[in-house]
Amino acid sequence: MKIANDLAVGIHYTLTDDKGETLDSSIGAEPLTYLQGHSNIIPGLESELTGLVVGDKKSVQVQPAEGYGEFDESLVQDVPREMFTGVDSIEVGMAFEVDGPDGHHLVEVTKVAPDTITIDGNHVLAGKVLNFDVEVVEVRTATVDEIESGHIHSEACNH
To answer: Cα-flanking dihedrals φ and ψ of residue 113, to 5°?
Structure first.
C-alpha cells in the first residue's frame, strides 16, 4: 500500500541540522505514526513521503518555509518583569504558555535583565534547514474516527 491521504503511516526517522548534529530521532523508540494529508507533520516531509511503501528509506531536506517557518524577529520581545508575577525564578531556556490572538502559544525566555525579560515566540527549529533520514515501517487504512478527528488514535497503532 502506497502512502496517500487518509492513510495511517508509521515512520522511523532521524532529524539532523546542517552541521550533521542529531536533533531528534525515533530510533530505539516507537515509530512516529501520523495521518497522511492532515498536517500532522511538517508539510515538506509529508509531501516527500507520498507514494512510498513499507520498507522504503528516503533522505529528505526540508527548507524553513516547508518546515517550522522562517525566523520572525517580531516574535522576539522585551516584556516587563512584572508580567511574570508568581514566578520565583526566571531563567534563560524556560518556556511559558501565553495567550495570543490565535490561541495559546509557547514562548521561550532568551534573556533576563533586572527590569525586562526577553521572550521568543519562534519555534526552536524556525529558520533552520531540516534533514530527515526516514524509513517507512507501517502503512494502513485509517479508521473512520481517525479520519474524522484528523489524527491517529494511539490505541489503533499496530506496533
So the answer is: -120, 165
pLDDT value, residue 86: 84
pTM, whole model, 2 decimals? 0.82
Task: Indicate the pairing of strand 95-100 with strand 103-112.
Answer: antiparallel
**Average pLDDT along the chain, 159 residues, taken 10 residues at a time:** 97 96 96 96 97 98 96 95 86 88 86 94 94 98 94 62
> Are residues 134 and 62 both part of a single domain?
yes
Cell numbers at residue 2, please? 502506497
Residues spanned by the domain of 110: 73-120
- How far is the C-alpha of 40 from the C-alpha of 99, rounded, in Å? 23
Residues contacting 32, CB < 8 A, separation 6+: 10, 11, 12, 13, 26, 41
Nearest to 14 by CA among 4, 2, 28, 3: 28
48/61 Cα distance (integer angstroms): 9
Number of domains in the chain: 2
At residue 118, the 3 state secondary structure works out as: strand
H-helix segments, 30-142: 43-49
Contact 33, 155 (CB under 8 A): no
Beta bridge partners of residue 114, listed in sequence order: none
How many other C-beta atoms lie within 10 A of the C-beta of residue 62? 22
